[in-house]
Design a protein that fits this description.
The protein is mainly alpha-helical. 58% of the residues lie in helices and 2% in strands. It is built from 10 helices and 2 strands.
């Protein structure tokens, strides 16, 4: 009987802690729907690992970002972004099918998942992190409009070592504000997103050049700026 009582108390404690964490998460996500996050987990990680280097990032509102930038990242990273609910199960099934067919295992993370990961989690490929990422992405989709997700993503995404957000990237690589990014420049920034620590906007390799060409084609194929209109 004493054992049952201890188990019950332990279960209640765990349940209360879990509920408190969920309420905290929902509160933070609701806050960040309206208030710009002051930093992100990835930016904090960079600052801690590089205390002698200056992190470059400046927040800009979605209305102050060239419409080519969100189109380029959607064309590059997540073409079903307007339609899914944070996790693209169709893309995951396709990636797993390709893996079982003998092809390499590719990522199937949506922009929402990448936003949640960059904001709250750490880099890596562990099952635990991917599960947390998926859960957070579903919560973000439930609490934020699509445009807010894109706004946060474009402001915290890494575009080079210590360069976070589309405004800092635009200023550093092109000498212009994000509002003035052209079709070509937006595609060039989006091309390095899979691995911004290795891929370079300033000196694009043949691989990056191929990605730029492909992204431009996808941007046109998605009906250009009409694709994200109304988000």
């Amino acid at each position: 009987m004493a054992r049952i009582s201890i188990v019950k108390r332990l279960f209640r404690t765990v349940a209360r802690v879990f509920l408190a964490l969920m309420l905290l998460l929902v509160s933070v996500l609701l806050l960040f729907r309206y208030v710009n996050p002051p930093t992100s987990a990835f930016m904090l990680g960079y600052s801690l690992a590089n205390p002698d280097k200056k992190l470059q990032q400046r927040w800009v509102n979605f209305s102050d970002i060239s419409p080519w930038a969100p189109l380029a990242v959607v064309a590059s990273e997540d073409q079903r972004f307007p339609d899914h609910w944070g996790v693209d199960f169709a893309a995951i099934r396709k990636a797993l099918a390709e893996y079982h067919a003998g092809e390499g295992l590719r990522g199937a993370s949506t922009i929402t998942q990448q936003t949640a990961k960059n904001l709250f989690l750490w880099n890596g490929r562990s099952f635990v992190r991917k599960t947390l990422e998926a859960g957070l992405a579903l919560a973000v989709e439930g609490l934020w409009p699509k445009q807010r997700i894109l706004e946060v993503y474009l402001n915290i995404a890494e575009f080079g070592r210590g360069i976070y957000g589309v405004e800092a990237a635009s200023q550093i690589y092109f000498g212009i504000p994000a509002s003035q990014l052209s079709f070509e420049q937006a595609a060039r920034l989006a091309a390095v997103l899979p691995n911004p620590k290795v891929l370079s906007v300033a000196s694009p390799s043949p691989y990056v050049q191929d990605r730029i060409f492909w992204i431009r084609g996808q941007m046109n194929q998605l009906s250009g700026l009409q694709y994200l209109k109304g988000l």
